[in-house]
Write a structure and sequence with these properties.
This protein is an alpha/beta fold. A hairpin with a 6-residue loop joins strand 20 (557-562) and strand 21 (569-574). The longest helix is centred in the N-terminal third of the chain and has 21 residues, at 104-124.
Length: 835
């Protein structure tokens, strides 16, 4: 018997053509899905037509079903499918007929093909359909869903969403009806959010390289004059610019050979351009991956100068760039779309503006004339790909979207707009009945225009930004509008309690009860303008013209920036009964941290309103400086300041040791279970070893501890001062606690793609170098580090944009923390010098 928590859906991939030499990454994805335990069947609209194929396709077990390209030439197959479909769901089939937009002949062909596909999906037992590219295959999946077929998801890429001839109305219709919309780059996410107007959340699932299949980075010497480009011969690849740049290099006495792999309509034009420029160029045409890998290992540099084509077409994130990076080949490219997310200029490669052959020639010359730079870029690039762009990681992200336990995603049958409404109503009834919805389910629930208007937000849909579980039947929610406005919310399983909360909160400001189960059965309570029954000081504060809401965790706390005359100030709004205690902690922290950190000064306290106002601490957060040299230079200062804080006395009275940390972990796991059972199974499997290591840490040597130290709590300024925020949880703790928290947050940012592996290692090493000897603390740092990884894996399950991070953090448990290896070698040198 199928159960949502324990069994994975049978996924059908509907593709325009399979296999296709230039889309080897789809085959990689399918192989990885099978490796991770997902059953897959492929439904291809067209058979392969190319004379070459990739050898690694033999690793794929999935059955391939070819749909009739011209259905009327296979009348018996179509008739059998039509008989079965009409026999099981005649109304669904008629809905499909009504939805057709194509001219009569093409519409009939599409209808027959959709009928055959629906029949094949049903007989194969497919639970969910996935499509790459929001084009004909996606529209076929949409039509099949309208006829009563499985829900479908779409990964959008480049031409399918950017080309000038894309019918935006049809694209919007196709994607809005999809259960899941994913895409491969942040630029694409922003573009699709604009196209969809918030009607569906857009998930980032970056393109990736199959690092395991590619093998280790090359070791043999590169051919010093070989420039390689693996690309289709189309305008958006910028190959005309590359040929011109190579001609400029020859004029600078740096002749190169250019080899291009790929086919396409511009081959003759590019061959002629190479002859005119007298650039020795080999056009290999289409090659199987095995041959391409040989060329990667020979090349001195891989160059793909992508551009935005005249018709608007552009790449999302080319696989060839990621493969070159994974294989240790230096990369030169442009900053178009997703390329700038993978290739960090000067660290993991070199980027230049598009349509700039002179700048491209300069970049190639830098790499070709400087072998040390080429090696450094290649090493950093390999680490960056391993941290963020592996096929395993991207497939895990995608699979988590297939398997989200809601009626819309990966389970329910379709039936057009009416069915989508019914599906949403089922989800709302499920939540309204007290059964915990997943954060992904809540992320898919959007207020209606009327509900937004009641909130004072006449336009712009809300998207769930993050959530915090409060027990098994309550979630605190933070939504954001497209222009960044914040709206707090709550989900409560007890609808009577939520009715009471809604009535009491409405007295404080605008409230909308999103009726997820019909009249009298609200589930999500949205609170705009500071409406909060437990934080009476928030709404009056936000009524000020200089106020901006930065954070609002319903009924617990909020942070408001006040940009009045002079320097900005920050107001923390809490429950009234906590005001005096938190103000006292802030005063104590300032005294304790004197000489170590700059700490916010309390300038006003309003106990009746629950408002504590602080002066701003100078500087910029470490989070804003991620991946910069400025942050690297400041990390030793952070380590010194942390050591100085730990030497301060007397330490706080409250204690947070290993038993307390274990309690936090157990609570996090219990809160996760009702919302994400599948992830909780993996978390529980990792927990015993983490808890055992915590229990083995010594219960002595207590020092002042922040308890939740991370990059957003630290500020750095040009004068070399280090600031620290949020001392609400100040306690006595193990000196390893804050170090471990900060180190794990650095690797978290690496997983999020905000910095590279090399930068993370360098920043962590600087932190530990400034802190001083840590070898005696190593077991405790490792124990608290794994505890932090486990805790964050639970926490990030409630961040829709970052749900895949949870799996990545679980994979890191038991592994080395950044900077610790370098710290050990530094300690050894110190001992040797002392001797």
């Amino acid at each position: 018997m199928r159960t949502e928590a324990t069994e994975r859906p049978h996924v059908g991939y509907v593709l325009k053509r399979f296999p296709w030499i230039s889309e080897a990454w789809i085959a990689d994805e399918l192989i990885e899905l099978e490796r991770q335990g997902t059953r897959v069947t492929i439904f291809a609209m067209n058979p392969p037509t190319e004379p070459v194929a990739h050898g690694f396709l033999s690793e794929l077990s999935a059955r391939v079903v070819y749909l009739p390209y011209r259905p009327l030439r296979e009348p018996a197959r179509v008739a059998r499918a039509l008989f079965r479909v009409l026999g099981s769901n005649p109304r669904g089939w008629l809905r499909g007929v009504a939805a057709l937009r194509a001219p009569r002949v093409f519409g009939l062909r599409k209808l027959m093909r959709a009928t055959v596909l629906l029949d094949e999906l049903t007989r194969a037992g497919v639970d969910h359909v996935h499509v790459h590219f929001a084009n004909k295959a996606a529209r076929l999946a949409n039509l099949t869903w309208r006829m009563g077929g499985p829900a479908y998801s779409v990964t959008a890429h480049g031409k399918d969403i950017w080309h000038g001839k894309v019918d935006m109305e049809r694209l919007r219709e196709t994607l809005t009806s999809a259960a899941v919309v994913a895409t491969v780059s942040e630029d694409n996410v922003r573009h699709l959010n604009s196209v969809l107007g918030g009607r569906r959340p857009v998930h980032l699932v970056p393109n990736a390289a199959d690092v395991a299949q590619l093998g280790p980075p090359r070791r043999e010497p590169a051919e010093p004059d070989l420039v390689l480009s693996v690309a289709r011969l189309v305008e958006k690849k910028g190959l005309a610019d590359l040929i011109e740049a190579c001609a400029l290099l020859a004029a600078r006495s740096l002749p190169v050979r250019l080899e291009i792999v790929g086919g396409g309509p511009l081959r003759r034009d590019l061959e002629a351009a190479a002859r005119r420029a007298r650039v020795p160029t080999t056009f290999h045409g289409k090659l199987p991956r095995e041959r391409v890998l040989e060329l990667y290992r020979r090349a001195a540099v891989h160059c793909l100068p992508c551009v935005v084509a005249a018709d608007g077409d552009r790449d999302g994130l080319p696989t060839s760039v990621l493969e070159a990076m994974a294989l240790g080949v230096p990369v030169v490219t442009t900053d178009v779309n997703g390329l700038k997310e993978a290739v960090i200029d000067g660290r993991t490669g070199v980027t230049v503006p598009e349509h700039s052959p002179p700048a491209l020639a300069d970049a190639l010359e830098r790499v070709l004339r400087n072998p040390a730079l080429a090696t450094a870029l290649a090493d950093e690039a390999r680490g960056h790909v391993e941290a963020r762009f592996t096929r395993e990681r991207s497939v895990s992200l995608l699979r988590s979207l297939f398997e989200a336990p809601t009626s819309d995603i990966g389970r329910g049958r379709g039936g057009g707009p009416a069915s989508r409404t019914e599906s949403r109503a089922r989800l709302r009834r499920r939540a309204g009945g007290g059964c915990a919805p997943s954060p992904e389910a809540l992320a898919a629930l959007y207020p209606t225009p009327d509900e937004l208007e009641r909130l004072g937000l006449a336009s712009g849909a809300l998207r769930l930004h993050r959530a915090w579980p409060r027990g098994r039947d309550r979630l605190l929610l933070e939504y954001r509008t497209a222009d960044g406005h914040l709206v707090a919310g709550q989900w409560l399983g007890d609808t009577r309690l939520l009715e009471r909360v809604a009535a009491e909160t409405a007295a404080r400001g605008p409230v909308a009860r999103v009726a997820l189960g019909g009249a009298g059965s609200p589930v999500v309570l949205l609170q705009a303008g500071g409406a909060d029954r437990r934080l009476p000081g928030l709404a009056p504060l936000l009524a000020r013209p200089d106020a901006r809401l930065l954070a609002h965790r319903a009924e617990r706390r909020a942070v408001v920036r006040l940009d009045g005359p002079g320097a900005p100030r920050y107001a923390k709004v809490v429950r009234r009964e906590r005001t005096q205690a938190l103000a006292a902690v802030a005063h104590a922290a300032r005294n304790l941290a004197a000489g170590a950190f700059e700490v916010p000064l309390v300038v006003d306290t309003e106990p009746d309103a629950g408002v504590i106002t602080f002066a701003a601490v100078p500087g910029v957060t470490l989070h804003e400086l991620l991946a910069t040299d400025e942050a690297i230079a400041s990390m030793p200062l952070v380590g010194e300041a942390l050591r100085a804080l730990q030497a301060a006395s007397p330490p706080p009275a409250a204690v947070h040791g290993a038993p307390e940390e274990a309690g936090v972990l157990r609570s996090s796991i219990e809160r996760l279970e009702p919302y994400s059972p599948d992830l909780c199974v993996r978390v529980r499997a990792a927990a015993p070893s983490v808890l055992a290591r915590l229990a083995a840490t010594p219960a002595d040597g207590w020092v002042p501890a922040h308890r939740d130290l991370h990059d957003k709590q630290l500020l750095l300024d040009a004068a070399g001062r280090v600031g620290m925020l949020d001392f609400d949880n100040l306690a006595r703790g193990d000196p390893a606690l804050d170090l471990a928290n900060l180190l794990v947050h650095l690797e978290l940012r690496e997983e999020q793609g905000l910095c590279s592996r090399g930068w993370t290692a360098e920043a962590a090493s600087g932190l530990l170098e400034g802190y001083g000897p840590v070898e005696a603390l190593r077991p405790s740092i490792e124990a608290y580090g794994d505890a932090t990884r486990l805790r964050l894996a639970c926490l990030y399950a409630f961040r829709p944009r970052w749900t895949g991070i949870s799996t990545a953090l679980l994979h890191r448990i038991g592994g080395p923390l950044p900077g610790m290896a370098a710290a050990a070698s530094t300690g050894t040198r110190r001992e040797a010098n002392a001797a």
